[in-house]
């Protein structure tokens, strides 16, 4: 079994383990959907974090994993999960139907960047967006800000249209972008900077074999959201528990594992820069 198959198996295990238990206790059950924005998505970690949050909310917090943003949004909109950790782009795109529950803090701030990466061994001549003509580019997800939307704006600025690329493909996961670039499946990839930096901290081989050649402006960090108008005592409890994680030793351990420093409530204005980018991209679903 290769790395990608292993990650998929872990995600599906988290899903299958969640649903039978949830049906038995709907009153206290609180389902949180996770998308590829999550780096530490191992089943054991999710189980321990769910137990930690359950103890602090008097709820039965369960995590449900899906490989794509669309998959987890489908669960949220069909009321199969109560909250979801998604990307800023789908939050902006479906803002009329969503509201913020919590925003992570990365290095003390609720922001992150998109990176363009290359392999110094396989793609030494790629130094920026202008060098991607005739090359293969790896994206993360069609609903990813850092893994797709940002790239559309930058490619347009460089005068490169889709047909000018040799190929572009979605890996459905930021880690998979790094892996595709590291092994030469793509000459460059657009990736969540927080994910890449965390992979480097963990000495993951695909991150160690790639390097950053461009960084974006700062954007609002991928948020946890709920459906608009669905806030209640349970969502308030979970939001409070997330915000308090930085104030106790166990919470700090979970945050450290995620390479985060805390959570805050957050404001919609954090995502104005993503909205402005989306308004420049035809077909983004965000009106000018």
From TrEMBL:
| Keywords for this protein | Signal
* Gene3D superfamilies named among the record's database cross-references: Periplasmic binding protein-like II
Presence of the UniProt keyword Metal-binding in the record: no
Q: Which domain of life is it from?
A: Bacteria
For this protein, the record's SUPFAM superfamilies field holds: Periplasmic binding protein-like II
Q: Which residues form the signal peptide?
A: 1-23
PANTHER family linked:
PHOSPHONATES-BINDING PERIPLASMIC PROTEIN (PTHR35841)
Name of the protein: PhnD/SsuA/transferrin family substrate-binding protein
Please tell me the species this chain comes from.
Diaphorobacter ruginosibacter
């Amino acid at each position: 079994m290769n790395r990608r198959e292993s990650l998929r198996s872990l995600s599906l295990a988290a899903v299958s383990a969640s649903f039978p238990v949830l049906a038995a206790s709907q009153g206290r059950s609180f389902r949180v959907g996770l998308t590829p924005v999550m780096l530490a998505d191992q089943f054991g970690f999710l189980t321990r974090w769910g137990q930690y949050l359950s103890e602090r909310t008097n709820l039965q917090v369960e995590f449900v994993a899906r490989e794509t943003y669309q998959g987890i949004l489908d669960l949220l909109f069909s009321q199969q999960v109560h909250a979801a950790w998604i990307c800023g782009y789908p939050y902006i795109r479906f803002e009329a139907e969503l509201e913020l529950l919590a925003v992570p803090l990365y290095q003390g701030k609720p922001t992150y960047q998109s990176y363009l990466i290359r392999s110094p061994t396989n793609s030494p001549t790629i130094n920026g967006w202008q060098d991607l003509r005739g090359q293969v580019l790896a994206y993360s997800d069609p609903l990813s800000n850092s893994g797709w939307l940002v790239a559309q704006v930058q490619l347009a600025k460089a005068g490169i249209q889709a047909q000018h690329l040799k190929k572009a493909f979605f890996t459905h996961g930021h880690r998979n972008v790094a892996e595709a670039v590291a092994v030469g499946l793509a000459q460059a990839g657009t990736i969540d900077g927080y994910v890449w930096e965390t992979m480097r901290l963990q000495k993951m081989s695909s991150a160690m074999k790639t390097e950053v050649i461009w960084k974006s402006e700062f954007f609002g960090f991928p948020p946890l959201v709920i459906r608009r108008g669905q806030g209640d005592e349970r969502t308030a409890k979970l939001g409070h528990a997330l915000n308090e994680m930085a104030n106790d030793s166990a919470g700090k351990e979970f945050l450290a594992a995620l390479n985060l420093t805390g959570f805050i409530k957050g404001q919609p204005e954090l995502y104005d820069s993503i909205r402005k980018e989306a308004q420049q991209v035809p077909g983004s679903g965000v009106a000018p």
